[in-house]
Amino acid sequence: MSDPFFTPVSGFDLPRFAGVPTFMRLPHVPPGHPRFADVQIGLVGTPWDSGTTNRPGPRHGPRQLRDASTMIRAQHPVTRQRPFEAFNCADLGDVGPNPASITDTLDRITSFYNDLKDNGIRPLTGGGDHLCSLPILRGIATDAPLGMIHFDSHTDLFHSYFGGEMYTHGTPFRRAVEEGLLDPKRIVQIGIRGTMYETEDLDFAASVGVRIVRIEELFERGIPDVMAEAREIVGTAPVYVSYDIDFVDPAFAPGTGTPEVGGPNSFQALEVCRHLHGLDIRGADLVEVSPPFDATGATAFLGVSIMFELLCAMTALPET
After folding, report:
1. pTM for the structure as a whole
2. Which of 79, 200, 258, 282 sits at a 20 to 30 Å CA gap from 314?
3. Number of folded domains in the chain?
């Protein structure tokens, strides 16, 4: 029986446009709250985009994602899962960034997620740019390297930008591999596309064993086949899921800083998540929603719909 405290506010009880928005209308349980130790899956905002190298704006993503998430209801339409009854879920609030310092913010995020790890709370994060994933991994991958399934149009495996800057939204997974946070032979990157500066990121991936599935291969083989391979690669050991909204074609998700044409539609964006069920997911994120480029709010709504799919994958029973 689920704990009534962790039950989201229903649209039957309070209109969706009323009340203070939290992720999926869950209770706000920040660190220090009397019920913090009872949380099993914590939804977190990382409102920070100092790793962005072109169009800024994802620092405003968590606030818009929360607002859009009032449309999320309690039950999955296909699996009939009711994740809020299976686990104690709560909105843990935002990690307060230091917009004047990348290194200080990295440390703040790492400390926050290390606290979650110590308390047995699995995080589901709304970003923020993709550099946010690095300190999250620093906070939770403290026992052993994690595998990763990564949906994106970019690899984020570059060595550096602008003559030696090591921390941008194009470098987080290069750092994570170098720091032993991710096992490169258990990383799958799906949806990669777009024009390129060079092949340095691809060369690094090949040298350490990262599996890259370009968008052409995804469409040619189909989602079920590709995701079956991804599941084989990550296996039954702990895994992290990172989802950049620019994985989706900008016709369906224009509100992002580095859009790439030729991507999946909004249904396919949800479908890939439905093949994650049963994996040992220790954390997940949805990043790079940029409200200044999301005039209709459609990108944010798709983003929180993806977060709900990820939540359902995190609360699914392991396959036997």
Report:
1. 0.97
2. 258
3. 1
